[in-house]
Each structure stands twice: as C-alpha cells, then as structure tokens.
Write a structure and sequence with these properties.
Elements lengths: L2 H53 L4 H59 L3 H19 L5 H5 L1 H19 L2 E4 L11 E7 L9 E6 L1 E4 L2 E4 L1 E6 L12 H11 L3 H16 L4
Helix pairs in contact: 3-5
Length: about 270
C-alpha cells in the first residue's frame, strides 16, 4: 500500500470518528429536550389535576355552594351600598333644606329689623298728628289781608307750620288731601253719604280729618263725606189743606176767646184754686 493510500484511509477514519461524535452530541441534546418536554407535560398534568381536584369531579357541589355564598355576600353588600346611597341622599336633602330655612329666617329677621327701625317713630307720629290737626285749624282763622301779610307774628306762625311740614316729610310722614278724590277704602273712612248736585258717586265732598301715611303705611285714614251721585232733594211745599186749617184757626170768633179768658177770673172770685 502506497503512502497516499494510507493518508486517504486515515482521513476517512478521522471523518468517521468526527461524524460519530457529532451524532452522539445531537443525541444527547435530543434526550435533554425530551426530558424537558416530559417535565413540562408532568407539570401541566399536575396543574390540571389540582384544578379538577378543586373545582371538578366530586367537589363540584362544594364549589357551587361557595359560589352561591359569594353571590349572596355580594348581593348583601350591594343592598347595603344602596341603603347608604339613599341615606346620603336623604342627609343631603336635609342639609339643603336646613340651609334654605336658615337663609329664609335670616332674611325674615333682617326685614323685620329694618321695618322696626323704619317705623320706630310711628307711635310718636300718631299722637303728633292730632296736634298738627289743631295747628292747621288755627291757621285757617288767620285773616287773609295786607295787614296779616305784614304782621310778623302771623308770618312767624306760618314759618313754624312750614318747618313742621318739612320735618314730617323728612321722616316719611305725608299728609294726603282727599277733597274731590274718589273714595278709596285703603285710605278713607266714610262717615256719611249725602246727595249733592253735580257730584259723581263715591266722590268726596267733605273731609273731617286728613289722611296721614308714614312711608308706605297708613297710620290714620281720612274721615270723609261721600256723594251718593243723586241730585239734592228740595224741601216739600206745604199742602193746601194745611193752609185752610190754619185759616180756620185764625177765623175763630172773638167772643169765644173772650169767654175763655174770663173763666179763670170767675174761678178766683169763687175761691177755687
């Protein structure tokens, strides 16, 4: 055998030995993979076994019972949550109503306080207007001539009356004249009703006492006389029969009158009382 044949033979043997080594390595890797796959299979089987042992097979009734109990607990919790929501809504409504009531009460108290301040002098003015009435009546008797215009005392009284009116207006006291106005039950008090020519019904023809208002409140109504709307009635003339009766009385004989006058004298002479 030549040297070349020997070398070729050695090379073939080396190649065969390398292929066998590679095959062994591949076989070892395949075995490892197979072992890992077997372990995974066993793990899955154990998981399935645990799952079925807990929820499946013979323990199915127990699982259903647990599920039912859980559903009941959830239903109770939902009911409690619903009741709490309703209670919260009720409390919110109560709080809102209390807040609104508190605001209304506060507003009402403030309005009452302002009204008391506004009409604090009402009692004083009710008594003061009686003095003002007397003063106005006295002013009506002041003579209206040149001498009165030059009289310093009369002018001083007029200025005093003007100051009274200014002070009253400053504090909200207003006098309302009613002559010629229509009757208004809010500010007028009818004392009587008369027939007046040329006056409409419910027209005021006379005023005893004037109306006074303090701000927007009537503290004294006006006492007035109201027209009925009918023409004034004239007194009836005496009838003719009454005139004749009077004439008959005047035509009484003079002799009868004289006899009547003499009778008492005769009685005194006879001693009768």
């Amino acid at each position: 055998m030549t040297e070349e044949e020997k070398k070729y033979k050695e090379e073939l043997e080396n190649e065969n030995n390398g292929a066998v080594g590679n095959d062994e390595n591949l076989a070892d890797a395949g075995n490892a993979l197979q072992a890992f796959a077997n372990e995974l299979g066993e793990h899955e089987k154990s998981k399935k076994k645990k799952f079925f042992s807990k929820f499946g097979g013979k323990s199915d009734g127990k699982a259903q019972k647990e599920v039912k109990e859980l559903e009941e607990k959830v239903a109770k919790l939902e009911e409690q949550l619903k009741l709490k929501d309703e209670k919260i809504a009720e409390l919110e409504g109560n709080v809102k109503s209390l807040v609104a009531e508190n605001r209304n009460q506060k507003t009402r108290i403030e309005n009452e306080f302002r009204s008391k301040i506004k009409f604090a002098v009402e009692d004083f003015f009710k008594e003061f207007i009686t003095v003002k009435d007397d003063f106005d009546k006295a002013m009506e008797f002041i003579p209206k001539n040149e001498d009165a215009e030059k009289d310093s005392f009369i002018q001083g009284i007029k200025n005093l009356g003007a100051k009274f009116d200014n002070i009253c207006n400053k504090h909200g006291l207003v006098c309302i004249s009613s002559l010629g106005e229509k009757f208004d039950p809010a500010i007028h008090q009818a004392m009587s009703m008369i027939n007046v020519d040329g006056k409409e019904a419910n027209e005021i023809v006379a005023e005893y006492v004037k109306c006074y208002k303090l701000h927007d409140r009537v503290i004294r109504p006006a006492m007035v006389v109201v027209a009925s709307g009918l023409p004034a009635t004239k007194p009836e003339e005496p009838r003719a029969e009454e005139e004749k009766t009077e004439e008959k009385v005047d035509e009484t004989p003079a002799e009868t009158v004289e006899e009547t006058a003499e009778q008492p004298e005769n009685k005194e002479e006879n001693g009768n009382c």
